[in-house]
Amino acid sequence: MSSTVEMPEQDPLIIMTRVFDAPRALVWETFTDCKHQVHWWGGHGWTLPVCEIELRPGGAWRQVMRTPEGAEYPLNSVIVEVQPPERLVWTDAVQSTHPDAPPSPLHTVTFEDLGNNKTKWHMVARFPSAQAREMATKMGYTAMIETGNDRLAAYLATR
Question: Which residues form a coiled coil (predicted)?
Fold first, then answer.
């Protein structure tokens, strides 16, 4: 199952939803624990050689994604809100590592228990402007998340 993607005209949002065939506690754990993120985060063939997360408000979330060709993309984020196992909010500081990157969104992800070992993952990325959202979309923002979700679904199937 693929993610649904919405981009409301009136708001600089990207809204994505996906249902995973796994219990909410497991989806939460694989999303918030680096020992799991290294198996699925990023594009096909990408690795995550660096992953550190302080899962608390104000905590740092640092990742380095590496492409199959060896290019590295550092991500430095700050955790804003944590409500295990149902809600995680963070913001990125990619401008510090990629000056040409669009302004970062505020990410809010919720994990809804649908019963029968199914979990609805719902992400709202709030960009500072419509232009920033458009720039992120052109740079492959939604495609990268969709690929990561595909990899997460495959990883969850092995758990």
Answer: none
